[in-house]
Amino acid sequence: MSSLLHLDSSADRSGDSVSRQLTALFADTWRAVHGPAGYRYRDLAADPVPPLDTAYCSLGRRVEQHGLVPLSGVDMLIESPAEKREWARTRPLVTELLEADTVLVGAPMYNYSVSASLKAWLDRVGFPGVFIDAETGDSLLQSTRLVVISTRGGAYGPGTPREAWDFQTPCLRAYFGKQGMAEEGMNFVSAEMTLAELVPHLNRFRPLAAASLAAARAKLTALATAATRSATH
What is the pTM of this model? Predict the structure, then answer.
C-alpha cells in the first residue's frame, strides 16, 4: 500500500493560501488514485512542533557519542524526565516520516526562506542518526519521494533578478539530501507572483502569475498520479 505524509506550513489557514490550495490538489488527486488508507495529514501551523531545547540537544549529543543507534535504542540513553519528554515529542514525527512513501510539503516563502513552523519540524525530525540503518549505514529515506510546493509572492526562478534571493529551495534540497533522499526522488514545484492579484504595482504580472499557477497545478497532478519511487525501485 502506498502512503503519503502531507504537511502544510502556511500561517494563513484560510482558503486564500495558495500553498494549501496546491497541496490539497496533490493530496486529493493522490487519494483518488491510491485510496485514503495510506494518507496522513499534519498542519504545522495549527499544531506547531515545539522548538528544540537543552534536553533535546543533550540527548542528541549522547546518541551521537554512541555511534549509530537504532530508533528503538534511543530510549535506553535517556537520563532525565526532560529528555524523555523531548523524545516523546520527536519519535512520532520521525516514525511518521519513515513510514511515508511520499512526503508532500507545502512551503510558502517567508522572508526568502521557509516558515518558522516548517523550520521547527525540520529541526526536530533531524535527530541524530534516526534515518540511518544501524546495520548497513544506508539511509532509510533513500527511496522516499519528496514533493515540495513553494509559493512566492514575487519571482525567484532561474533567470529572474531575484534568483539569488531564494534561500528556500537550496535549503530544503540540502536538508533532505543530507537525510539520504535521492536527488532524483526530490521534486520542487513553484507558483510565482502570487501577490500579483493583490498588490497594485504587481498587477502587470497577472498573466505570469496565472501561467505559473497553471503550470504548477499540471505538474502536481502528474506527480500525484505517478507511481511512488518506493513502489518502482
Answer: 0.93
Closest by CA to 34, choosing from 145, 195, 178, is 145
Contacts 24+ apart (CB under 8 A), 123-126: 123/51, 123/52, 124/49, 124/50, 124/52, 124/56, 124/89, 124/90, 124/93, 125/90, 125/93, 125/94, 125/97, 126/175, 126/179
Any idea which residue has 519521494 for its cell? 145
Locate the domains of the chain by residue range. Answer: 4-48+99-121+140-232
pLDDT at 165 over 90: yes
pLDDT band (50, 70, 90) for residue 15? confident
AA letter at 80 = S
Among 14, 45, 42, 40, residue whose Cα is nearest residue 117: 45
CA 50/CA 121 separation, integer angstroms: 8
Using pLDDT thresholds of 50, 70 and 90, give the confidence band for residue 233: very low
As a whole number of angstroms, the distance between CA 62 and CA 78 comes to 9
**Whole-number Å distance between alpha carbons of 181 and 34:** 22
Q: Is-contact 143 229, C-beta < 8 A?
A: yes
Give domain 4-48+99-121+140-232's CATH architecture: 3-Layer(aba) Sandwich (3.40)
Residue 232 confidence (pLDDT): 35
Weakest mean pLDDT among 51-55, 66-70, 115-119, 137-141: 66-70
> Residue 18: how many CA atoms within 13 Å on its side-chain side?
24
The amino acid occupying position 36 is P
